Amino acid sequence: MKVASVQVEIKDDETKEQRILRVESILDTLKGYNLIVLPEIWATGYFSFDRYKEESEPIDGPFVESFSAKAKALSAYLFCGSFVEKDGDNFYNTSVMFDPQGRRIASYRKIHLFHYGSDEGKLLTRGHEVMVVDTDFGKVGLATCYDLRFPELFRRQVDLGAELLLVTSAWPHRRLMHWNLFNQVRALENQCFLISSNCVGTTRGTLLGGHSQVVDPWGVVIASGGEQETIVKAEIDLTQIKHIREIFPQLKHRVLTGSSEWREDI
Ligand SMILES: NC(=O)CCC(=O)C(=O)O
Fold first, then answer.
1. How far apart are CA 102 and CA 99, in angstroms?
2. What's the rounded Cα separation, in Å, for the pair 112 and 126?
3. Ligand 1 atom closest to Cα of residue 114
4. What sequence ranges are listed for the domain CN hydrolase (predicted)?
5. Cβ-contact 87, 64 below 8 angstroms
6. Residue 59 contacts by C-beta under 8 Å, 6 or more apart in sequence?
7. Following DSSP, what letter does each residue of 76-100 receive, concatenated?
8. Distance from the CA of 251 to the CA of which of 77, 185, 186, 202 falls in 20 to 30 A?
9. Cα separation of 92 and 104, whole Å?
10. Which candidate, 62, 70, 127, places its Cα nearest to that of 97?
């Protein structure tokens, strides 16, 4: 299975429309890929909080429509990253997954909004639904950036059958060490493949970290971007998940120490 993560550069002097056109032409080079992943709020720019409300769209708006058409044209699964979704009086950080026919098969509203040097928590409403979606190649868990810090979200996805974890992000360079660790650890502890897409560039004074990754279920980074706009490409074999879970059945050895069922005396 051929996968690609598009590491988009965010520039303050580029409009949403210009960036969408640019990314669409990058996607046009990815014919033959089975799954493509894009970053978090890349069209508006994650740190352009003043543009969030004016550039928000409903889930059936032009942003989502255009990537539905792109998934169909490429005949690929496309996780088109997130955008600012408007639903009534509320705004969400919503990511969307399309199948190769261009059907919207899942949308995920970021559960853990980011509050540190970010207006996200003030402007947006958090999501409440853990998202695992069925695809032709297995079940896929969807997550967004700061979610990476919360292992229980990913473990819940695994409990729901996820074997492949997709993470759309706008993670700053100053915490790159955390980013690299979390990418590897979330894949390793859950014995899943993980594909992340991060942004690069400097936006509103923040340098974004890049280093989008494809990590295998043994925690090995099999492909990674640097700090420039690029496409991280890899070929992955999902049968590796079953194999690793068989030879090293760590997920079967869980003891529910965090649950009310846990008792110290047994
Ligand atoms: N966009 C984000 O959620 C940023 C998260 C981040 O920078 C961090 O967790 O550190």
1. 5
2. 7
3. 3
4. 1-238
5. no
6. 85, 87, 94, 96, 104, 107
7. SEEEEEEEEEEETTEEEEEEEEE-T
8. 77
9. 17
10. 70
Size (the chain), residues: 266
List pocket residues of ligand 1, CB cut-off 6 Å.
40, 46, 114, 145-146, 149, 170-172, 175, 178
Residue carrying the six token digits 């099999």: 222
Q: What are the Cα distances from residue 60, in Å, to 63, 66, 71, 167, 190? A: 8, 10, 15, 22, 33
Tell if the pTM clears 0.90, that is, is over it.
yes
Could you report the predicted ipTM of this complex, rounded to two decimals? 0.99
Of 154, 165, 149, 143, the residue nearest 251 (C-alpha): 154
Ligand 1 centroid to residue 246 C-alpha, Å: 34
pLDDT in tens, 198-253: 999 999 999 999 999 999 999 999 999 999 999 999 999 999 999 999 999 999 99
Pick the residue whose CA is nearest to atom 3 on ligand 1: 146
Maximum pairwise Cα distance, the chain: 62
d(CA 59, CA 238): 31
Alpha carbon of 265 to ligand 1 centroid (Å): 39
